[in-house]
Write a structure and sequence with these properties.
Elements: E1 6-26, E2 49-72, E3 75-88, E4 114-115, E5 122-131, H1 145-151, E6 154-163, E7 167-168, E8 188-189, E9 212-213, E10 228-229, E11 233-247, E12 250-259, E13 290-298
Antiparallel strand pairs: 1-2, 2-3, 3-4, 3-5, 5-6, 6-11, 7-10, 8-9, 11-12, 12-13
Length: 299
């Protein structure tokens, strides 16, 4: 407790998960440039067999901090920050954001170990609620009647969300480059740095596309899963509320809300298919400014 109704909390959360659901394939063909796909399968008389089993593993480590001001003098706020890392070898049994449906190689799940598709390294959220000091019983314009009803009962609200981006997997865009009949391949790494300097990075070129190259036909690529990080998020929502109290336990609340109030462009993920002509390009945004009016009866 820091005094003046302000409290600081710091904590750590860690977890280890085993036998999580994972989607993989049995009787998957061995990569090769020649021969039919089934001729390189362990059991050529059968096709590709899908299975959901408990082969996925995960771990999470996170440091969190929260600064809170308890409600007093018409104001309260909370500021929270989390620095974390989530790792697994499969985040869902169906595609999740930039993840692929199946492993690149169902016989080598260790090669799928990487950042979870929902991993966010840094996230800070702050919220504020402030009752304006006007009207009956307040510091300014402490009057009753019509004046008090008009200038009193106003509240300002704000929520600010800042976070880094989600991981993305670079793929061959469904092309069966390994010649296994699956189409969940990843390319090879060239050894160049993937991340671009901040002054060179933008929607037209989010990462260094020369860091990846299509692997030779009939082989798996050596690029890991979820090795790219997409654009982060800056979301500032604001609200203006007016309470009309007509009984002790009943009032009508008018709400005006702005989502992404400054209309900041939050970019979508870049194209991560190496065979696409738009590889590395961002072509869309997430959630531009929205305005909303509402009326609520509270009793």
């Amino acid at each position: 407790d820091l005094g003046r109704e302000i409290v600081l909390e710091v904590g750590y959360l860690g977890s280890i998960s085993r036998k999580l659901e994972s989607l993989r394939a049995f009787n998957e063909s061995i990569p090769g440039p020649t021969g039919t796909v089934l001729s390189r399968a362990p059991y050529p008389e059968f096709g590709r067999i899908q299975e959901v089993d408990g082969s996925a593993k995960a771990n999470y480590n996170g440091l969190s901090a929260k600064l809170q001001k308890r409600y007093s003098q018409g104001a309260t706020f909370v500021v929270g920050y989390t620095w974390s890392k989530s790792i697994d070898n499969g985040s869902a049994i169906r595609t999740h954001d930039g993840d692929t449906l199946f492993p690149q190689n169902s016989y080598n799940l260790a090669a799928e170990r990487g950042l979870s598709s929902f991993h966010v390294a840094h996230r800070a959220v702050s919220s504020l609620l402030y009752e304006l000091p006007f009207g009956s019983g307040r510091r300014f314009l402490d009057r009753g009647g019509v004046v008090g009803a008009l200038v009193g009962g106003w509240e300002l609200g704000s929520i600010l969300n800042l976070q880094t981006g989600f991981p993305i997997t670079v793929s061959t865009g469904g092309r069966d480059q390994s010649n296994t009949g699956a189409g969940f391949d990843r390319p090879n790494a060239t050894g160049q740095e993937v991340a671009l300097p901040r002054d060179e990075r933008g929607p037209a070129r989010w990462f260094n596309t020369r860091a990846f190259v299509l692997q030779p036909f009939g082989t798996h690529g050596n690029v890991g899963r979820n090795t790219l990080i997409g654009p982060g998020l800056i979301q500032w929502d604001m609200s203006l509320l007016k309470n009309f109290r007509f009984k002790e336990d009943q009032n009508i609340q008018f709400r005006f809300e702005m989502f992404n109030a400054p209309n900041h462009p939050n970019w979508g993920n870049p194209v991560a298919s190496i065979i696409s002509p738009n590889f590395g390009i961002i072509s869309g945004t997430r959630g531009m400014r929205e305005l909303q009016f509402g009326l609520k009866y509270i009793f």
